[in-house]
Amino acid sequence: MCLLRSNMPWLLIPVSMSQPRKLIFWSAIGLLLLFILAPVIGQFIPLHLESPVRDYYEGARAIAIPVCILLTLSGTLGKGDGTAVVVAKVFITLIVVVISFLVLVMLAFADMCEWSTGKVLFQNKKNPSSQIVLRSYGCGATDSTSPLYEVCEIYRIGGGLILTYPADTTRIDHSRWLRVSRDE
Asked: How far is residue 85's CA from residue 87's CA, in Å, rounded to a whole number?
């Protein structure tokens, strides 16, 4: 056991040498859960990332998941493990890292379609970050099928996060909404 000095000279915190390894291991597990569960949960809630932020998130996720898998070695390798066990654990972990990276790359190419906000139809008079917009879901290729269109209310939270809800422009309260553009 060693003593960890803090900013306060009178406070010495006892730290065992295995605590940093546990911290790395559990941080890696937590980040893995975050990066794996966030997209799954995102399918069931109306919270979405806007395009540039989504691209940064996907890039970070493609790097972070394999790195976190490697960092889990800090919790799976033990002091009593023999050479063959250590080599096997490292080899299996490296195989999982390569497979996870390949799956993430394939998912990136498979999911090239996305929602984009085309035209702002109405804006909330009291809250300009709340808008009724025409969104399109397309794949960007001119030879693919035409995009799907949806009228929805979006609320920009900040940091690239938006809440989206379906909207019916025939039933909105015109005292709350200001028409921004007309259909052409």
From this structure: 5
Tokens matching residue 86: 């250590």
Q: Strand, coil or helix: what is 35?
A: helix
* Distance separating the N- and C-terminal Cα atoms of the chain: 74
pLDDT tens by residue, 100-120: 888 877 777 766 777 788 788
Could you tell me the residue ranges of all domains in the chain?
14-110, 114-179
Helix (H, G, I), strand (E, B) or coil at 63: helix
Q: Predicted confidence band at 64 (pLDDT cuts at 50, 70, 90)?
A: confident
Cα separation, 39 vs 36, in Å, equals 7
Cα Rg of the chain, angstroms: 24
Copy the structure tokens of residue 163.
């809440």
Question: What pTM does this model have?
Answer: 0.64
- For residue 162, how many C-alpha atoms fall within 13 Å in the half-sphere facing its CB? 23
Residue-wise pLDDT tens digits, 160-170: 888 888 888 88
